[in-house]
Model the fold of this input.
Amino acid sequence: MASAMTESLTIRRPDDWHLHLRDGAMLEGVLPETARHFARAIIMPNLVPPVVRGDDAMAYRDRIMAALPDGMAFEPLMTLYLTEATDPADVAAAAASGLVKAVKLYPAGATTNSASGVKDFDKVRGVLEKMAEIGLPLCTHGEVTTPEVDIFDREAVFIDRVLDPIRKSTPGLRVVMEHITTKNGVDYVKSQDDMGATITTHHLVINRNHILVGGIKPHYYCLPVAKREEHRVALVEAATSGAGPFFLGTDSAPHIDALKEHACGCAGCFTATNTLSVLAEVFEKAGALDRLEAFTSLNGPAFYRLPVNDETVTLTKGGAVDYPAKIETGAGPVTVFDPGFPLHWSVA
Ligand code: NCD
Ligand code: ZN
Done:
């Protein structure tokens, strides 16, 4: 639905297919930042304790809706955190009721609050088979956690050692490789049938130099960690191609500044606030503004077999748009992702 002039662009209202909302005061602080622009989001279950059973997801969904300011519309699409004790029947019931839209696999220890994740994949075989049977997607945090594997290689090794074996041993299981950061991820997803991949806003913008050159930049540290420039370029090509398997999952992951700017800083970039303006800039630079809608608003619903949103949003190009450097939440200040270039597209 791109208009003829590129100065204004009207697209279906976007969805975010990978989002961390947290809980309590942080949830209250960050939820409006997403609900302002996005209709729906796949909500990550890595709370403490994690969202494991259907009942946990129901209670979390209620807390999210209670935190939504009056007059804002937003639909949380809930997920369950896969553990070695997950009961296939509980997953099936939560999916059948329409509450739960995916199950999330975290290899144990891969990232923030992932201690309950999976160590022994034989123990989750029954759940994966049930999910294949009912068509419920598995969202994967695609990194191995083996200490011997270099952190920059963990995604590529995950594909060979974990993802490809799961795909081969569970025919029909629908898998989303979450927040891909490598050309290896792009190529693997393209080689598969009925597989999706989310790409974050920040991985379209930064490479590993942004984190490490000229002093360590904790607000660019996230997991999977940003890789070399050639990988960022492959991600931009995939996202701006409009191809069906690739869709937006911001992985907006708020941590208070005190925990980011720390001797052992938390992983996560907070991009909910300015994602659409940043993406418009990235797509414009790639000559692909006409494919922004596929990435933000069409490909995700198609993969998840959900309708696209009826409402639209309009982006308008003008002078530099200012976003706050940080948002204040009841839990503390959270720094907004700085793309490092001026933004010209504002969201009406
Ligand atoms: C996420 C978080 O903080 O919950 N952090 C991140 O760097 N992306 C966890 C995750 O998705 O890996
Ligand atoms: Zn995440």
